[in-house]
Structures are given as C-alpha cells and as structure tokens.
Amino acid sequence: MNDTIAAIATAIVPEQGSVGIVRLSGSESVAIAQKIFHSPGRQTWESHRILYGFIRHPETQQMVDEALLLLMLAPRSYTREDVIEFHCHGGIIAVQQVLQLCIEQGARLAQPGEFTLRAFLNGRLDLTQAESISDLVGARSPQAAQTALSGLQGKLAHPIRQLRATCLDILAEVEARIDFEDDLPPLDEAEIQAQFRHVLAEVTRILATADRGELLRTGLKVAIVGRPNVGKSSLLNAWSRSDRAIVTDLPGTTRDVVESQLVVGGIPIQVLDTAGIRETEDQVEKIGVERSRLAAQSADLVLFTIDAQTGFTESDREIYEQVSDRPLILIINKVDLAEVNGDLPSALQIVKTAASLNQGIDALETAILNTVQTGKIQAANLDLAINQRQAAALTKAKIALEQVQTTIANQLPLDFWTIDLRSAIQALGEILGEDVTESVLDRIFSRFCIGK
C-alpha cells in the first residue's frame, strides 16, 4: 500500500453544500499537496494544522479554488498514513477539478471503502468498527446511529475479544495436558464446563441482537391496505403530519402507491399508502389495485383498514383473505362518526383511529412496536446490534462450542476437544477481522462510499 489514493469525501450536489472535501492518503500525499497548494505568508506545514491558501495548476499556475488544507501525518490519522484534506467550495466543478489535479500529480482514484480498509489493515480499526462506520454513514434513524457509534467504540469487539481469549486459554490448557500429561495436574473439567457455559451464554445473547440490527439498518416496510374511501390516505397524512396523499370523498382517488418515511421507536419505517382494493373497469385504477396487492405481499406489516360506519363488510373479508398471511394490525378508522358494526376477525390486534382528527396515531405506533416485539425483534434500546456476517460467524462459533460440550459429555480424548475449539476460535476471530479472507474484505468494503 505504498501508492497514494484520492477521492471526494463529501456528497456532490449541484447548488447545495457550501463545502466539498477532497481526501488524499498515502506516502506521497504531502508532496502532491505541496505541488498544487499555495499558502500565503509564513504558515507552517505541521501535522494537525489548518492552512489557508489557493489550489493552482502546478504548470499553468491557473487558480482552481480558494481552500483550506488540513494536514494529518502518520500515524495520527484515520488511515495511519499521511492524510491531506482539501476543504474546497461545494458543488460539482471545484472538487472535481481538485481531484483531477491530485490524480495528475500521481495519486490514483480510491476504491469504495479504501480509506477505511487501510485503517483496518494498518491496525487503526478492527473489522467490527469498520463495519460500524458504514452503518453510521447509512443510519436512517437516531437509534441506528447510536448503535453504530456503540460498535465504533468497541461495544461489540470488546466482548468478542474476551470470549475468544477465554477459548484460547482453554485450548492452551487442553493442549498442555496432551503434550505434558505426566508433568501437570489433571484438567479441572468442572471449571472448563463452567467457562464453556459462560461463553455460550454470551454468544447466544449477542446473536439475539441480529434481527434488531437488521431492522435498524433496513427498516420496516408497512402497507396501509383496505377498500376505497376507508381513510387510508387520511391515516398516512395524519401519521406523517403532511399532505402526501390526496384526500377526497370520492372512492378510488389514490391510483398508485404513495410512500412516506417515518421513525417509530428508533426504527425507520417506510409507509405505503396503497390504492383501494376493489373490482374496477378503470384501467388506471386497475393497475393501482394490482400494485396495492403486490405492496401488501412485500410488506413486513400490513395495516388493514376498515370504516367504522360500515363495519367489516364482505368486501373487507375478501381483502382480508388476501393479506391474512402477513403480520397484520386491524385499523378501525372514522370512530368519531360511528361505533363499529359487525363481526371482526378474531386474534387480531385492533387500533381505533379518527385520522381526519389526528386521533389514534400514538396507539397505532404502540401497536406496531408490540407487533415487532411479538416477532421476537426487541424494540428496546441496545448497546450493540450485529449484522448478517457477524451473525453467521457467531452461529459457527456457537455450533462448535456446543459440539465441544458434547465431546466432553461423551468422555472422548482431549485431542477431540481441540478440533471444535479451534473452529470456535477461528469463527470469533472472523468477526474481529483476525481470521478473514481477502474476498470477505472485498465484499465488506465494496458497500462503502468512495470517499470513506
């Protein structure tokens, strides 16, 4: 990694963003910066200082931008290499011209996530912390950001490292008895079993956060489904505190799926207001109805909405049969106008709303969180939440540890203990990045943005 990489480290949006950052990392960073950056006066090029000046083409001396330069020398930098940041004017042209100058002077364009990859390879971060940075950048709710920050601070790495150390200690004890059986006292199997139980309990506890982690990262897709004119659009507008959907007394007003992004209990929620489901000859409405059915089938949760004035009609029952295989909450809307009439499906969580009056929204959010908890995805705050890769490695470790316990219970020789114990140690090491292949690293860091 002797080459120097460069990338734009901020979003490029026309006419938005007052500052754009171009980042360099590598042994030639300072030399490249000195070729193109001119600082007036007697400003000193020292680590962790900010210089003011102008970026010029080194041959024509044409000014490209007025900028600040932030100098961070190794090892006190994000990558533990020499790092330069040009803080330029935002927009599109200025930062792209500065980046092009850096490349012309010998840098190459960074790959996605390459700055963080170098931080990992240089020992600045372990793999769990690197993944937490990606989660922090992509966080869609304050809770997701807080969980990512916990991972960045080592809330996952610390317990995994301790569990791996315990397994290594046990392996050392077992191998010592194999090699020097006559010179050492017998192995304390009761103590070893107690240590295994502790490690397994911790692995199981951390594994339980996998669903929560996935929920925080991807969010929950919720579809509002029902007959035309039961108040689905009014419910969306009241919930999102906006006028995203058109609301009239005419059935069939919503012709397509209307989307809104919300956060409930720290969980990002994508709410889909669907067209009223009914038989129709209107070709445009028919397309909307079909999209509604598809949205309901792809949703994590369906808010099946009926009208309190008409009760649970035969048309409602037909729609219910189409979505009853999904996690479902029954919304009885317009309770300000009438009491509920007719029989209702049993064993359903029911929420009563008056969307036009903004009533029942708190009860709806509580019901959603209850449904999430019923699905064994805890909605309470967590210090950590593992991702799919980490969950797969932990599952391997758990299976290996359980196999060691079986080996002990069957009174097999110590040599057999070491086989699965080594597998558990390797799996725990994969989480931290201590035993991980290049292809795994490529897969992880390819999901990062270019400048990170």
Structural commentary:
- It is a single chain.
- The chain has 452 residues and is α/β, with parallel strands linked by helices.
- Helix content is 44%, strand content 17%.
- The chain has a seven-stranded mixed beta sheet with strand order 3-4-5-6-2-1-7. A six-stranded mixed beta sheet has the order 9-10-8-11-12-13, with helices on both faces.
- Strand 9 and strand 10 form a beta hairpin.
- The longest helix has 23 residues.
- About 7% of the residues have low confidence.
Q: What's the helix count?
A: 15
Count of β-strands: 13
Q: Judging from the principal axes of the Cα atoms, what is the shape?
A: flat
Strand arrangement in the largest pleated sheet:
3-4-5-6-2-1-7
Unreliable stretches (pLDDT < 50, length at least 5) are 244-256, 277-288, 376-381
Q: If you average the pLDDT, what whole number results?
A: 83
Briefly note the structural class of the backbone: alpha/beta
The proportion of residues in beta strands is 15-25%
Profile the largest sheet.
Answer: 7 strands, mixed
**Which oligomerization state do the chains in this entry correspond to?**
single chain
N- and C-termini, Cα separation: 17 Å
Tell me roughly what share of residues is in helical segments: 40-55%
Give descriptors for this structure.
13 strands; seven-stranded mixed beta sheet; flat; alpha/beta; six-stranded mixed beta sheet; 17% strand
Topology:
Layout: E1 5-8, E2 19-25, H1 29-36, E3 37-38, E4 49-56, E5 63-72, E6 83-89, H2 93-104, E7 108-109, H3 114-121, H4 127-137, H5 142-152, H6 157-179, H7 189-207, H8 210-218, E8 220-226, H9 232-240, E9 258-264, E10 267-273, H10 283-298, E11 301-307, H11 314-323, E12 328-333, E13 349-352, H12 361-374, H13 388-409, H14 414-432, H15 438-445
Parallel strand pairs: 1-7, 8-10, 8-11, 11-12, 12-13
Antiparallel strand pairs: 1-2, 2-6, 3-4, 4-5, 5-6, 9-10
Helix pairs in contact: 4-5, 6-7, 6-14, 7-13, 13-14
